[in-house]
Design goal:
Layout (H helix, E strand, L loop, with lengths): L2 H16 L4 E6 L20 E16 L2 H7 L2 H21 L2 E7 L2 E6 L4 H20 L10 E13 L17 E3 L1 H12 L5 E13 L8 E6 L1 H6 L17 E14 L5 E4 H10 L4 H4 L4 E2 L11 E4 L9
Parallel strand pairs: 1-2, 5-10
Antiparallel strand pairs: 2-4, 2-5, 3-4, 5-6, 7-8, 7-9, 10-12, 11-12
Helix pairs in contact: 3-4
C-alpha cells in the first residue's frame, strides 16, 4: 500500500467514525467492566456503531517517585525486581478492598472501584498502599530512597476499546480497555503532586543603614532593599572617584539571604474534595475523620479544579 492509498483509507475511516451517522451505544454500570465484556466493542465501520460502558466511581493512581534516578543508580536486575515487587504489592492492596487494576504504565498503577462503597474502598486502599510502600517495599532500600505518590478522584469513567480488532499474535495487545474521563486525569495530576518535598529558593536582600532614627534622634535606621534597587541609589563617579549614595544619611550596608517557601511539601495521599466529602459521609466515625488526619491543602494544583485534601495515614500494624 502506498502512502497515498493509506491517506485515502485513513481519511475514510476517520470520517466514518466522526460522522453523525456513527452511533455510540452507552451502557451504565455499577461494577468495573473487564475487557471481555460484550457490551464494549471496537468501532464497527460497517455497522457504524460502537459499544461503551460508563461507571461513576473512584479512581486511584499510585506512582513510584524518582524512577529514572533509581534506574541510573541501581543494577538493572535490582530495578526489574523492584518494579515486579511494586506491581505485585499494589495489585494485592487493590484486591484486598475490591479494587480492580486497570492500568499499569511503567511505574504507575491505576485502580478503579465498583460503585458501591467506592469512597471507603478507595481511601482504605490508599492507606494500605501507603503502609506497604513505606514499611515493606522501602525497607529493602538502606537509604529510604523509594517513595510513592497516591491520588484519588471521583466521577464518570468511560470504558471503551480503540483501534482495530486483531487476530493471531497481536490480539492480546488490543484486548485492554481504554479508560476515559475526568477522574483519571485529576487522579493522575494529584499523583504527580503527592509526596513532593518543599520547594524553596534563596532570596537576597541588602540591609542598608542610614544615620538618624525614624523619629529624628541619633542612631541608625535600617531598610531592606532589593539588590537591583539598591544599586540604582548610587550616582555616577565624582571628581574623587567615588559613587555617592543619593541619600546623604547613608551609612553602610550588609547582604542578607533567606530561604523563601514557594510551595509546601505534600503528603503521600492526595484526594479531591469530592472524594474527601464522600468518604466523610460514608465513614463519619472513622479515626481519620474524627482526628482530622486529612487536611485541606493550602495551595492549588494545575489542572485540578477541585480543592484537595491530603494526609500521611498508615495502618499501625505495619510499624510493629
Amino acid at each position: 500500500m502506498t502512502i497515498t492509498d493509506l491517506k485515502i483509507d485513513v481519511a475514510a475511516e476517520v470520517g466514518t467514525i466522526l460522522s453523525s451517522s456513527f452511533s455510540i451505544s452507552l451502557t451504565e454500570t455499577a461494577s468495573v467492566p473487564h475487557s471481555t465484556d460484550g457490551a464494549i466493542t471496537f468501532p464497527n465501520l460497517d455497522a457504524k456503531s460502537q459499544g461503551v460502558k460508563v461507571v461513576k466511581t473512584t479512581v486511584l493512581y499510585v506512582d513510584m517517585r524518582r524512577s529514572t534516578e533509581l534506574s541510573l543508580k541501581h543494577h538493572p536486575h535490582t530495578v526489574a525486581k523492584l518494579y515486579s515487587a511494586f506491581v505485585r504489592a499494589m495489585t494485592r492492596c487493590a484486591d484486598h478492598f475490591g479494587g480492580h487494576v486497570r492500568g499499569i504504565i511503567g511505574d504507575r498503577v491505576m485502580i478503579i472501584f465498583d460503585q458501591e462503597n467506592c469512597y471507603e474502598h478507595a481511601v482504605n486502599t490508599a492507606v494500605l498502599i501507603n503502609s506497604v510502600c513505606q514499611y515493606v517495599i522501602n525497607s529493602h532500600f538502606t537509604h529510604g530512597e523509594v517513595s510513592f505518590g497516591i491520588g484519588i478522584d471521583y466521577g464518570r469513567m468511560l470504558a471503551t476499546k480503540t483501534g482495530v480488532y486483531r487476530r493471531g499474535s497481536a490480539q492480546q495487545s488490543y484486548r485492554s480497555l481504554v479508560w476515559l474521563g475526568r477522574p483519571a486525569n485529576v487522579a493522575s495530576k494529584l499523583t504527580d503532586n503527592a509526596n513532593k518535598p518543599e520547594e524553596t529558593y534563596e532570596m537576597t536582600w541588602v540591609k542598608a543603614a542610614f544615620e538618624g532614627s525614624l523619629l529624628g534622634g541619633s542612631g541608625l535606621r535600617y531598610e531592606r532593599i532589593a539588590p537591583h534597587n539598591f544599586v540604582k541609589q548610587f550616582g555616577s563617579r565624582n571628581s574623587i572617584g567615588t559613587m555617592p549614595h543619593q541619600n546623604p544619611t547613608f551609612h553602610s550596608f550588609s547582604v542578607e539571604t533567606e530561604s523563601v517557601v514557594l510551595k509546601s511539601a505534600t503528603p503521600p495521599i492526595l484526594m479531591s474534595k469530592r472524594v474527601y466529602d464522600g468518604y466523610r459521609a460514608a465513614c463519619p466515625s472513622s479515626q481519620e475523620i474524627v482526628s482530622e488526619w486529612y487536611k485541606l491543602i493550602a495551595h492549588s494544583f494545575p489542572d485540578v479544579p477541585d480543592q484537595v485534601y491530603g494526609g500521611d495515614v498508615i495502618y499501625t500494624t505495619f510499624t510493629i
